TrEMBL record:
Residues 24-274 form the Heparin-sulfate lyase N-terminal domain. Keywords: Lyase, Periplasm, Signal. It is found in: Periplasm. PANTHER family: HEPARIN-SULFATE LYASE. It comes from Jeotgalicoccus saudimassiliensis. This is Heparin-sulfate lyase. Residues 277-492 form the Heparinase II/III-like C-terminal domain. Coiled coil: none annotated. One of its GO terms (molecular function) is lyase activity. GO terms for cellular component: periplasmic space.
Amino acid sequence: MKTRYEIAEEVVSNYKENKLLLKIGFDLIDISNGIDWRYKHTSNVRTYSVYLHTLDFLKSIVMVYEETKEEDLVILANKILTSWYEYNEIRKDIDEFVWNEHAVSNRLHNILYYFEKLGELTADNQKYFDTIIEEHCDFLIDENNYRPNNHGIMMDKALIESVSYIRNEKIKKLYLSKALYRIKLAIFRDFSRRGVHLENSPEYHRMVQKILHITNQTLIKKNIKIGSEEHRLINLAKYFNRIMLKPNSSYPLIGDTGYIYDKYTKKTFEDFVDYDSGTVIFQQEHKDNLEESFYLFFKSGYKRKTHKHKDDLSFILTMDGSDIITDSGKYNYDKKDNLRDYFTSQNAHSTIIISNKDYSYGNPISDQFDLEIKNVKISDDLKVATGINNLYPNCKLKRTVIVTSDHLVIILDEVLAEEKVDIIQNFILSEQLSVSKIDNKSYSMVDNKNTFVIQNLNKNFDDLESSVSESKISYRFNEYDENLKISFTSSMINSNIVTCIYNENKGIKNVQYNNKNNILTYEINSKIKEFNLFD
């Protein structure tokens, strides 16, 4: 993953070739005839237009100037800001993308950064500067423009940053008190009691946590205390980054999350349960090689619909240095894009699906008893987590994930339906795995390190069908890679489905399930182990 300065260098390099890069992964925009502030992308108008008017590229140019002292970049930055200001003076009551809460928050930050680094305030430009600050702050403080989500936090961060540049003490106090009130409200609104951001995405958790940390540091410098409980939640959110990082120090591709490698956050390997956000993480550190540690992320439930995918009862699995079961990633935000529909659907997640049926999210308060993590038990021998999804019409689903001390993973799916339904167990695989069929109930999954086996253990499922098909995984915005998924399909009314995943190289074999007494047995290193799935 590129550093912020490396991204800035890429922005400047492209700009010199008359190409505007708004964000890594975005299409380049031709600016041979200057920046068209009315630019409309062919398929993703809103996202591109908002990012155009954040002026993030202005900050990139200033950052590169700070390092290189290339005077042409000062001229370029001045030209860009003047061009945008003149356009806005004409169209500020017309263009919805100029005065959008995301665009305004980021743009104010970038303009303040520009003036701090380059802008010498004189009698000639002080009024110009004051007008920009006033217009932006008036927008940000207006409750009609406020958004009760991560954008609202961005708005208040920008307001707090602007206070140092406002000369009217009465207005300064007003902005600060309003921003502080809303920030404190947002911390309790947007985070669980265990510090997990409730917008269903590790990427957005990380982003909002960083915004709050920076904002809190700004307040501390102004001798303003945010509150002890608020401060505690901010610290919990920061610590959760360490917990949810995968063993390779990247964030899991859950919800609207792209690939993020975080070399600055020290990974910790403790198990974690948060019933509010519907999150369970089971992990075990490999002392000699951290990347070979065990990691399983299990999810069911929601408290906010923002950035939510149909990933309930899905899981991510990494062990022995290999990604095995993965998630789809973000791809983009375009609701009109059919590919976006796929990435957010059940079909792109490792979950249990009722064929030809769908479920919808209503209100998180009323849905919380039908879509949740129910029980978690952790001992030296077994780690067990159970989640439910009762939002499908006329059908209830329960999934229990069991991890043994030998890292045999058992998936127990329980189906209770009013009529016969076709059940699909979806397993989205890392693109690093090649797959070969052992028999109709089991597959071998191989990378350059390990050989894993996925196996259905139900002896009485004569109608079970299995298949390998193409799927998609997105690490970068608007880009995707091809990967594979394994699906087990069977028809049933009320039944239990038992599936296991294990590393064949670690000596596990002869995994069997007796559906009469619910005993699962397996052999490892010539020892027989057994346990009851329903204990």
